[in-house]
């Protein structure tokens, strides 16, 4: 049987074999191009910027001038030289690069926030490894001058509190121009950047500096909003900021007992939801959380760290959104947040990236079809059409 098939293949005209080979190459190329490039456009094209109150009654020019379009993502975890396998790096980093670049091209945000854990091994990487990780990050997340990129420090970037050193913090700050207690104001909207790793409350050097900056910034913001409990005398020499309630951006979420109340398809798996969170490790301590709420009275808090989605209300009125991981390495259905923000209001919408399982399914289906086509071509597998034709012929003969 096999020798007969081999003889048949050899006897096939050269032109026919080349034509079949060309068709296979086109088929494989089409699958690769779709799964590694076009699928990101197909999926992200479906995401739309949410409307804020009054946005539907404003002209397009007025909307673009007054509404800040922000993308928020978290926990990219670029693999390092110690734990990162080259194939894992290649696959995950390509997914994040294509997702990010496609989102920039299609959505054209004004600003992008990355809420920490940019790197996976920043907490222990050598200077050379750190430089290599930074180079790869800058390639993956390159952006035009019309889009601003703001990066927050996470525990994998500078270490947990017991690993955090001034050297690691300064190294991160030098690359990303990040300092805890830094204020970014865009279109009259105040964003407060918090180094949540430094909110340990034990009086360490980095913690003292960080908290001092946050307290000073809190005073400025409160004076700018002319709170009744701040007299004119206390605020007379303070630089005035836009009178807009701030939005807090940080890596650790504020204190919550667990993810038990979190819902949605990208929330934590059922077996993990009821696991109690450890203060200063999974979430901020209750004391640090109360400090931030008391200092800033924010209208919105955005955090990462857990790799899963969650929405909670603090003090019954202040929403916190935990942003899921952006990487396939941490979840099958990564996503980012799209925010339309004004000085007085905001509206958020989640944009899912391609599911990794769906990409694998396409590859598996294409691979199976490819095998069937090859077997049918060399007559090791009878094509269904010819099989049906033979049955009909036999039926007529009878």
UniProtKB/TrEMBL annotation:
Calcineurin-like phosphoesterase domain segment(s): 69-308
BP GO terms, sorted: endoplasmic reticulum to Golgi vesicle-mediated transport; GPI anchor biosynthetic process
Subcellular location: Endoplasmic reticulum-Golgi intermediate compartment membrane
GO MF, any single term: metal ion binding
Keyword terms of this UniProt record: ER-Golgi transport, GPI-anchor biosynthesis, Hydrolase, Manganese, Membrane, Metal-binding, Transmembrane, Transmembrane helix, Transport
Cofactor requirements of the protein: Mn(2+)
Topology with respect to the bilayer: Multi-pass membrane protein
Predominant subcellular localization, coarse grouping: endoplasmic reticulum
Spans through the membrane: 20-43, 360-387
InterPro entries: Calcineurin-like_PHP, Metallo-depent_PP-like, MPP_MPPE1, PGAP5/Cdc1/Ted1
Any one cellular-component term (Gene Ontology): endoplasmic reticulum-Golgi intermediate compartment membrane
Organism domain of life: Eukaryota
Function description: Metallophosphoesterase that catalyzes the removal of a side-chain ethanolamine-phosphate (EtNP) from the second mannose of the GPI-anchor protein intermediate. Participates in the glycan remodeling steps of GPI-anchor maturation to allow an efficient transport of GPI-anchor proteins from the endoplasmic reticulum to the Golgi.
Similarity comment text for this entry: Belongs to the metallophosphoesterase superfamily. MPPE1 family.
Name of the molecule in the record: Metallophosphoesterase 1
Organism (species): Erithacus rubecula (European robin)
């Amino acid at each position: 049987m096999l020798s007969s098939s081999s003889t048949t293949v050899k006897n096939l005209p050269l032109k026919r074999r080349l034509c079949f080979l060309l068709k296979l190459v086109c088929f494989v190329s089409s699958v690769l191009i779709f799964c590694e490039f076009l699928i990101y456009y197909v999926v992200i094209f479906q995401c739309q910027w949410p409307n804020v109150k009054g946005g539907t009654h404003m002209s397009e020019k007025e909307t673009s001038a007054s509404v800040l379009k922000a993308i928020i993502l978290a926990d990219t975890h670029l693999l390092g030289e110690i734990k990162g396998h080259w194939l894992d790096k290649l696959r995950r980093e390509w997914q994040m690069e294509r997702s990010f670049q496609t989102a920039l091209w299609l959505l054209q945000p004004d600003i992008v926030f990355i809420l920490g854990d940019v790197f996976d091994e920043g907490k222990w990487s050598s200077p050379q490894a750190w430089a290599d990780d930074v180079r790869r990050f800058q390639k993956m997340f390159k952006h035009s001058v019309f889009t601003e990129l703001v990066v927050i420090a996470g525990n994998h970037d500078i270490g947990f509190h017991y690993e955090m050193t001034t050297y690691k913090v300064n190294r991160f700050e030098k690359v990303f121009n990040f300092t805890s207690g830094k204020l970014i104001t865009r279109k009259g909207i105040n964003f407060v950047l918090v180094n949540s790793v430094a909110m340990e409350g034990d009086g360490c050097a980095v913690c003292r500096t960080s908290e001092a900056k946050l307290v000073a910034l809190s005073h400025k913001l409160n004076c700018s909003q002319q709170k009744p409990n701040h007299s004119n005398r206390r605020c007379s020499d303070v630089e005035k900021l836009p009178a807009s309630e701030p939005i807090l951006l940080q890596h650790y979420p504020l204190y919550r007992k667990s993810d038990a109340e979190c819902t949605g398809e990208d929330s934590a798996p059922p077996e993990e939801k009821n696991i109690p969170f450890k203060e200063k490790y999974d979430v901020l301590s209750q004391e640090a959380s109360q400090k931030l709420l008391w200092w800033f009275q924010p209208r919105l808090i955005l955090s990462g760290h857990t790799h899963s989605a969650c929405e909670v209300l603090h003090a019954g009125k202040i929403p916190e959104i935990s942003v899921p991981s952006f990487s396939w390495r941490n979840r099958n259905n990564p996503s980012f947040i799209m925010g339309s923000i004004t000085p007085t209001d905001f509206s958020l919408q989640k944009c899912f990236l391609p599911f990794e399982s769906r990409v694998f399914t396409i590859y598996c289906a294409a691979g199976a079809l490819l095998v069937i086509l090859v077997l049918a071509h060399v007559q090791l597998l009878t094509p269904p059409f010819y099989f049906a034709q033979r049955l009909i012929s036999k039926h007529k003969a009878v």
